[in-house]
Amino acid sequence: MLLLCGCAGQTAPVLTVEQDNRQPTHTETQKATNTVTPHAAGNTATEIKILPTRIDTNPGDMDKITGTETVRLELTEIPGPDNKPARSLSSNAWKGLPVIPHVSDNVKTIYKRGLELGRNPDVYSKIGDCGSTPTWFLGDFDRGPKYYDLGEYQYLNEVISEFAGSHERTSLAARAGFNAPSLFVPLWSDIKLCDPNEGPLECEYRVNNPIIAFIMLGANDIWHPDEFEPSMRKIIEYSIDNGVIPILSTKADNQEGDGSINFTIANLALEYDIPLVNFWRAVQDIPNKGLQEDGVHMTWGNNDFNDPDSMNTAWTIRNLTALQTLDAVWRKAIETP
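RE: above sequence
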């Protein structure tokens, strides 16, 4: 069986203090307004207006962006005790969602619950396959400025400092080959740090005690697609119930052929009203859409947001968009009325 994790078959370059080759981020900072008018029940439709993608050094400069595109949403009803209507994207509408999400007040609700449960407000976790390990994802931002250049994104220094220690930490719920169901299987847990009946997700949340979690899954879920959505729901609900703000992300590849995994991820983010990094959209305008020749592994670049060559690689873009989203989520969470 071939494991399609984002770094399988790929070797990270050896780094020196002077030269750093690691992860990705994004050339585009998308400012978006997600305005949804919920309906009472039944299968109805509404619209959200998406502001176009652009590079922006100031995350608050909404007035500089002109033009909108419309994405249609369909609302269907979810069986449940509250009979609450679920919001669902239609067709390929997920492709037009912004790269950097408009963060709703629901984040503040989860954050408050997390504080009540004793969560550490200065810690986040990474949940996923080998692409969620610090060699690839965000680790450089604990290693000091010799390993990255924020360029015009200097405002990210604050969030980097706020979550110092989380960037380079290796998660107990991030391992090569992980798919969504594996997060609840004790067999895959660290036997030294986890309790006998703890799955990797539960163990990570107990040991690291995060207030936020990046959840980046899907590359290894093409083998059992029927298990992906229910497992993702379980991950999301477990996170929210335990006061951890889940940040979802679409993936760059389309190994399943129909974009259904990204469609599911985007729909779940919308339904649960949680942040989504539309990473797929972030890489559409860079060479080969950020993918190597195999169509699975992402292109590599330094975390130098001031270097045009690095900004044309998927791993550089992934790190930038993640930091931008972390910044947006954190600021919304601590926002005062």
